[in-house]
Amino acid sequence: MKTKIELGDRAHYVGSLPKNGEMYDFYKIEVAGHVRYIYVQANPERDLDQM
């Protein structure tokens, strides 16, 4: 089982954009002093408890 990390004010929603024909939510995160941009497929039907 993966460990969930609470990011609090270290994660910021950038916006939703299409990528490869699908919609993705983009986030800017800071962990251990490093800033990264990540994307998560936007899927309202996804069961978040299964991640």
> How big is the Rg?
12 Å
N-to-C CA distance: 9 Å
Provide the β-strand percentage band: over 45%
Low-confidence stretches: none
Order of helices and strands: EEE
Strand order of the largest sheet: 1-2-3
What is the makeup of the main sheet? 3 strands, antiparallel
Tally of contiguous helical segments:
0
Mean pLDDT: 78
Query: How much helical structure, as a percent, in the residues?
Result: under 10%
Shape: elongated
Q: Quickly count the domains.
A: 1
How many individual β-strands? 3
By secondary-structure content and strand pairing, the structural class works out as: mainly beta
Structure commentary:
This protein has 51 residues and is mostly beta strands. The protein has one domain. It has strands at 11-19, 22-31, 34-41. Strands 1-2-3 form a three-stranded antiparallel β-sheet, with no helix packed on it. The model has no long low-confidence stretch (mean pLDDT 78).
Helices and strands in order, then pairings?
Elements: E1 11-19, E2 22-31, E3 34-41
Antiparallel strand pairs: 1-2, 2-3
Q: In brief, what are we looking at here?
A:
This protein has 51 residues and is an all-beta fold. The protein has no helices and three strands.
Entry keywords:
51 residues
